[in-house]
Hints:
This protein is mostly helical. The chain has a domain at 82-272. Helices cover 69% and strands 4% of the residues. The chain contains 10 helices and 2 strands. Strands 1-2 form a two-stranded antiparallel ribbon. 38% of the residues are buried.
Amino acid sequence: MNIKLRKNxxxxxxxxxxxxxxxISGVLVIKKAxxxxxxxxxxxxxxxxxxxQNLISGFVIISIYYVLYKFLEKRKVHExxxxxxxxxxxIGISSxxxxxxxxxxxxxxxxxxEVYSFNELSVILLPLTLLVSAALFEEVIFRGIIxxxxxxxxxxxIALSQALFFGVLHYANVNATITSVWFVIILxxxxxxxxxxxxxxxxxxxxxxxxxFAQIVYGTPLSGDTNFNALVSSKFSGPSLFIGSEFGIEDxxxxxxxxxxxxxxxYWICKKKGKLKTLTYKKAT
Length: 285
C-alpha cells in the first residue's frame, strides 16, 4: 500500500471516528451537565422535561455535526442546507407515513387490522419528541457521517454496505428477528439513497421520522418496542407473514415488499439522474 493511499484511508477513518465520538459524547455531556439540571430546576412535570430534553438533544447533535465538519472539512455543510427543506418535508412526511398507511390499509381490507377507538392527541406528544430526536441521531450518525464519507471515497455502491451495519445493530432491539434485521437493512438502503439523490439529510430524516411516527399512530410495536401510547386503540390479528412478528409491522411481507420496491426505484432514479458516485470520485480535502 503506497503512502498516499494509506494517508487517504487514515483520513476518512479519522473523520468517521471523530464524528461519531464527538457527536455522541457531546450530546451526552450537554444533556447531563447542562440541559437536564436546568430543566429540573424550572419544570415539575417529568413528561414535559423529557419532551423538551428530546428536542434539545436533536438540536444539539445537528449543531455539533455542523460545527465539527465545517471545521474539519473546511467547507459549507451543504447536507444541512435549508434551501429546499419545505420540499424535503412534504415528500418525506407523505411518503414515510403513506407507505405505512398502505400496509395498514391492506391489512384492514384483509380483516387483519381493527380499530376500536381513538385516544387523545396528547398521548403521542412525548413519543413524537423522542422519535424526532432518535431519527435525527440515526441520520446524523449513519447517513451524515458514515454513509456520506464512504460514498465520497468509495462511491455509492460500496457505501450502501453501511446499511448492513445499520440493520445488524437493530438485532439488539426487543423481539428482533432475522426478518426484521433484513427489513432494517432495506430501510437503510432507502434512507441512504434518499441522501444520495438530494445530498441533504432532511429528506431521509423526514421519511425516517414519519415512518416511525405512523407506527405509534396505528398502534403497532415500533421496532419491537411496545411502550409507546398509540393514537388509536387497535388490534392486529392474522398470519405473522402479513401482520409481522412481535417486532411489529416492519417485518411483515407487505412492509418488506414495498420498501424493496422503493429501494429499487430510488437506485434506478439515482442512476438515471447521474446521482450515483463511483469509486473514482474524489473530493478535495
